[in-house]
Specification:
By secondary structure, the chain is α+β, with helices and mostly antiparallel strands. The chain has nine helices and twelve strands. The strands form three sheets. A four-stranded antiparallel sheet has the order 1-2-8-4. Strands 3-7-5-6 form a four-stranded antiparallel sheet. Strands 9-10-12-11 form a four-stranded antiparallel sheet. The two termini are 18 Å apart.
C-alpha cells in the first residue's frame, strides 16, 4: 500500500464519483484539499472488521470486495464495488465501526479517502449530496443481491459469465466496434474466489472462451466480444464447451482475497 498526494488530478477523480457529479466546484475544491489518494495491491486490506471509520472512501480504479467472517470462521462476500462508487461509507455516515473487512480484489486498486469532518461540512453546505448517498446505498443492496445470484448460478461457466456481465453492466464501456471493455484487471485467482470455484477450472473456461473469440484479457482489464454468447450460457445453462467439471461452490475460507 502506498500514499501520495496528487492535487492536480484529485478534483477530476472526485468528479467521477457518484456523490460529487453534481457538486458545486467550490465545494469540490474544498473536499479535494484534504483528500488522499491511496493505492493497494491484490489481497491488501483496506480496513479490518471492527475498525473505526475515519474517512469516506471512494473507488477510482479496480475492484473492492467486502467480506464478513462468521463466528465459525467462514467468510461471506457481501458486495463488490468499483470505479465511481463509494465503499463502506455507511459506517462513516453513522460514525460506527466497520462490520466487515474490505480487500483489494483486483490487481490494483486506487481509492480516494476523505476525512469525515470534511464530508460533514460538504454535506451541510450541499444537502442534495445525501440524495446521491441514498442512491448509492440502493446500488450496494443491488450489488449484494447480484453476488448471491453469482454464487447460485450453477456451473462455473454460468457463474463466471454472470460475474463478467455484471461488471460489464456496471463499469464497462461499449465501443463502436461492438465489444465491451471493462477497465478492471482481475487475476485468475481473484476470479475464482469471487465466484467460489477452483482456479484451474476458471483458467480452462476462460481459455475456451478466448479461443472462441468471446472474451480476452488486457493489462488494464478485459474485453467482451460476444456478450450474447455469455447471456446464452445463463439462459440455457450451457457451459460454452462440453469438457468442464461442474464445481460446487467451495466453502469460503481463510484464503479469500489472498494472492493467487
Amino acid at each position: 500500500m502506498s500514499q501520495h498526494p496528487v492535487d492536480h488530478v484529485l478534483s477530476s477523480q472526485l468528479r467521477s464519483v457518484l456523490w460529487f457529479r453534481r457538486t458545486d466546484e467550490a465545494i469540490l475544491q474544498q473536499v479535494a484539499a484534504t483528500t488522499q489518494q491511496t493505492q493497494f495491491r491484490e489481497g491488501d486490506r483496506l480496513w479490518m472488521a471492527g475498525e473505526v471509520a475515519t474517512h469516506f472512501v471512494f473507488v477510482v480504479r479496480g475492484l473492492v470486495q467486502i467480506v464478513r467472517v462468521s463466528a465459525r470462521g467462514s467468510e461471506t462476500t457481501l458486495g463488490l464495488f468499483g470505479p465511481g462508487e463509494g465503499v463502506g461509507n455507511r459506517a462513516a455516515l453513522e460514525n460506527i465501526r466497520y462490520p466487515a473487512f474490505a480487500i483489494a480484489a483486483s490487481k490494483r486498486v486506487i481509492v480516494l479517502r476523505v476525512p469525515i469532518a470534511t464530508m460533514a461540512i460538504a454535506i451541510a453546505n450541499y444537502p442534495t449530496m445525501l440524495a446521491s448517498a441514498n442512491q448509492e446505498l440502493i446500488g450496494k443492496t443491488k450489488a449484494l443481491l447480484t453476488k448471491i445470484d453469482i454464487l447460485s448460478a450453477g456451473p462455473v461457466p454460468a457463474r463466471l459469465a454472470l460475474l463478467l456481465l455484471h461488471l460489464a453492466e456496471r463499469f464497462g464501456d461499449d465501443l463502436e466496434t461492438a465489444e465491451t471493455v471493462v477497465p478492471i484487471s482481475l487475476s485468475r485467482g481473484s476470479l475464482a474466489r469471487l465466484i467460489g470455484a477452483r482456479e484451474e477450472t476458471v483458467i480452462r473456461v476462460l481459455s475456451a472462451w478466448k479461443n472462441k473469440g468471446w472474451v480476452t484479457s488486457s493489462p488494464d482489464g478485459f474485453l467482451i466480444f460476444a456478450r450474447h454468447e455469455l447471456e446464452n450460457i445463463l439462459s440455457d445453462g450451457s457451459s460454452g464447451s462440453t469438457d468442464f467439471p461442474v464445481d460446487a461452490p467451495p466453502k469460503q475460507n481463510g484464503d479469500v482475497g489472498g494472492q493467487k
